[in-house]
Design a protein that fits this description.
Number of strands: 13
Radius of gyration: 20 Å
Family: Belongs to the bacterial solute-binding protein 8 family.
Pfam families: Peripla_BP_2
Largest sheet: 6 strands, mixed
Structural class: alpha/beta
Order of helices and strands: EEEHEHEHEHEHHEEHEEHEHHEH
Organism: Mycetocola zhujimingii
Strand content: 15-25%
Number of helices: 11
InterPro entries: ABC_Transporter_SBP, ABC_transptr_periplasmic_BD
Protein name: ABC transporter substrate-binding protein
CATH topology: Rossmann fold
Helix content: 25-40%
Length: about 325
């Protein structure tokens, strides 16, 4: 069945007053029917989360188990190779053209557990006869999928071994790897150039910003743990480009549990709250924490609530998320 949810595009007038020349949120699609550039030599071997992955040819049947790579695939002109997808693909992520292309793809499952994780079996995935699976939800293994004939790629920030400090170069490198895999190296370079220009526009606009601090948080629903993002997350380069200091930039981990007392002690000027699915009053989750009324960001309403993929993992959506941050809080100049 095709997705019944309609994916409406955000009309981002992002930075309209503060910046000029910022592009629309998502890339223009290339001709997906043409042959590759002929610049990739197969078999191609890459390293992904410490695992060796070999491609004998460009993948032709993709199962997409997370939403973030969709913008890269579309930018390379290979989204039509996605035979099925699973999980939430929220309306706000895509422009109308990409929304329509995603809407036309068959959906295997949209079942999400209480923690926001996709639940799907290997049998359902392998029934699609993929040669590449993007994403590895709990319950699936690389070995099991490879035994069924499919390679698997995991976003580097989700590698079990962890990652070092993340930057926008992490995004550009990821796009270039996808370009190699699909023999769409020219398109990859075009996409990287566009994203670099947009990031540079923001950095130029915020270059003279006064000292400002921020925290990026993921509040759990129902009074569960509060998580913060450190140097290994994409929030670090986002905040730096937007003219902010991450109050948790002394923490090398990507994401970690933080107490309300620690957050109050660091007292960031602004809060960026991430969520998946329905926001479900994510700001209220923070406001109801004991002592949270001491946070200046809350008392002064300097809060941005946005969908998870606008920050993590590194994808073109992270650049949109950067632009949204500056749209919300200004350039500081």
């Amino acid at each position: 069945m095709s997705r019944s949810t309609r994916f409406l595009a955000p009309i981002l007038g992002i930075l309209a007053l503060a910046l000029t020349g910022c592009a629309a949120p998502v890339t223009a699609a290339h001709d997906s029917t043409r042959a590759g550039d002929g610049t990739t030599t197969y078999p191609l071997t890459i390293e992904n989360c410490g695992e060796t992955v070999t491609f004998d040819q460009a993948p032709e049947r993709i199962v997409l188990l997370e939403s973030a790579p969709a913008t890269i695939l579309d930018g390379l002109g290979v989204l039509d190779r996605v035979v099925s997808l699973a999980g939430p693909f929220p309306d706000e992520y895509y422009d109308s053209g990409l929304a329509g292309r995603i809407d036309a793809i068959d959906t295997l499952s949209d079942r999400i557990d209480a923690a926001g994780h996709l639940t799907i079996s290997a049998e359902v995935v392998l029934a699609q006869e993929p040669d590449l699976v993007l994403g590895l939800p709990d319950g699936l293994t690389r070995t099991g999928l490879l035994d069924g004939g499919s390679n698997t790629l995991v976003q580097p920030v989700y590698c079990p071994t962890g990652v070092e400090d993340t930057s926008f170069d992490s995004l550009y490198e990821q796009i270039e790897i996808y370009g190699q895999i699909f023999d769409r190296n020219d398109e990859a370079q075009e996409l990287v150039a566009d994203l670099k220009a947009r990031v540079t526009d923001v950095e130029s606009a915020t270059a003279n910003a006064p000292e400002r601090t921020a925290a990026v948080l993921y509040p759990s629903a129902g009074g569960g743990p509060l998580y913060a993002y450190g140097r290994a997350s994409m929030s670090q380069p986002q905040l730096e480009a937007a003219g902010f200091t991450n109050v948790f930039d002394d923490t090398p981990e990507r994401v970690f549990e933080v107490s309300i007392e620690e957050l109050i002690d660091r007292d960031p000027d602004v809060l960026i709250l991430l969520y998946q699915g329905d926001d479900g009053g994510v700001e209220d989750e923070v406001r109801t924490l004991p002592g949270s009324d001491a946070l200046r960001a809350l008392t002064e309403s300097n809060v941005l609530v946005q969908l998870f993929n606008f920050t993590e993992p590194p994808s073109p959506l992270s650049v949109v998320g950067l632009e949204r941050i500056v749209e919300r809080f200004g350039t500081g100049s």
